[in-house]
Design goal:
539 residues, alpha/beta, 8-stranded mixed sheet, 17 helices, 21 strands, binds adenosine-5'-diphosphate, binds aspartic acid, binds magnesium ion
Length: 539
Amino acid sequence: MKVLKFGGTSVGTPERIVDIGKLLLDRHQAGEQMTVVTSAFGGVTDALIKCSDLAASGDKNYLQIAEQIESRHHNTIRSLGLSGDEVVGEITRNFVNFKNLLHGVFLVREASARTMDFLLSFGERNAAPILAAYLSTLGLPARYLDARQIIKTNKEFGRAKVNFSTTEKLIQDRFRGGENFIEIVTGFIATDIGGLTTTLGRGGSDYTAAIIAGALRAEVLEIWTDVDGVLTSNPKIVENAYTIPELSYDEAMELSHFGAKVIYPPTIQPALAESIPIYIKNTFNPSFMGTLISDRIPRGGKGNITGVTGISDITLLTLAGSGLMGIPGSSARLFSALGRAKINIVMITQASSEHSICIAVRSGDTPQAVEVLSEEFQKEMEARLVKPIKTEPGLSLIAVIGEKMKSVPGVSGSLFKALGNNGINVAAIAQGSSELNISVAIKRKDEVKALNLVHDAFFLSESKGLNLFLVGVGLIGGTLLEQIKDQYDTLREDKNLDIHVIGIANSKKMYFHSDGIDLSRWREDLEKSGVPSSFDGYV
Ligand code: ADP
Ligand code: ASP
Ligand code: MG
């Protein structure tokens, strides 16, 4: 059995669903047994949140958004040639229920976490039946399965914890004897023991697939997404990022915990427990090998680290005071107080002087974290042994991750050099005890620059990029541009210098290209595409 999960963009348009059909048909004809897990159509979960928020705030526009979401589903049904299919009735009924519920939210001006989970469940509950109906028209033995029947959780709405023993049994019972079917399962959603709808956290469809793969002892888990696997950094931020062919489970876990959204962090555990290999593949580029995550420790590859990730919107909290040294168990108290409040600590550092403990939390958790800690250390604060909690908002975390770091000295040196040489200040530092990860907190505004710098410092260390801005492109400036063009290859090969001219200007016009201006035609580009010169604009 193979479990395949398709993310939002992979089912985002009718064309993509047709592509999934082709892929599954090929696999089926090759005799493969499969289970498919699908997310909501791309962007639908966000849209559901938006219209629920509007309804809860008493804004009537919620209805317009709900209707747009509904039309999108009906348009998809039409484009896939399913207008006469019974799935039309199912989707229509879903939207009647959904809109009734929203009306209730609008009237009471409130959507609790429990209500939100129910509202969000419609994303997957619409996508999966449409996918199943389409696959059936191709002659595949597909049938729709609502995961709420097989995945049981506690009542932590919004990010419910799975009850594995009950869930495993339910999955095994449900799949027994159904080997000839391809179940098309809703990702992300589940129910508590009493039957209330819960969700597994944003991005949770990956987890659904892993839970099913684990329970069925699947031979492989394939996560189909919109990029070529797990890359050395987020390709939407770091242009030079490239695919990592192989990762260990531990590395994948670190990368996902520290911001690589391509895998939802809890996904790794059920696969690891049964040694099930995970492939991350690109629906837009299906023949590309992607990334394999398994219990093998990858060897080789470029650089001393495996990847660079970032988490935006972090706040540092510092608990400090001369009295801290004398208070036994103060770190333990800090962690348990935050743990009881279910606040996730993203990073911890403590200087050896023990005068202060510094932790990083997501900015949204800051007010609650400050409250909880002020309460916990109230007595010490009143006695002036501990200072009020200091907060430093507006930060991001950058982490470099990899198994190879353990045996290679100087990784942190290279990290700090890359940041320091480029004027990026480090607010806090931590190294995981597993030595798989070094993380630093920096200003949020520096995040994109830092990710690119650190990425290139580790992975493209052979060459150094130089971005050039030139004002004055007359006889002298123009000749300089010609020389740079003629010398480009030599500079790159012999001097490891990769020069890109990003901006040029004369007194009339200025022209920019973030990837580098084509120096064989800069005069035409400046003339035709340039904008009127201004000092402020250029700066
Ligand atoms: P899906 O809808 O398929 O679940 P997601 O949006 O959840 O897809 O995850 C894929 C996205 O993860 C990519 O488009 C990419 O922007 C982001 N991402 C962040 N870090 C990485 C990384 N290291 N490698 C690959 N993708 C990453
Ligand atoms: N649809 C859910 C979300 O957008 C789950 C997922 O896509 O994995 O978070
Ligand atoms: Mg995802």
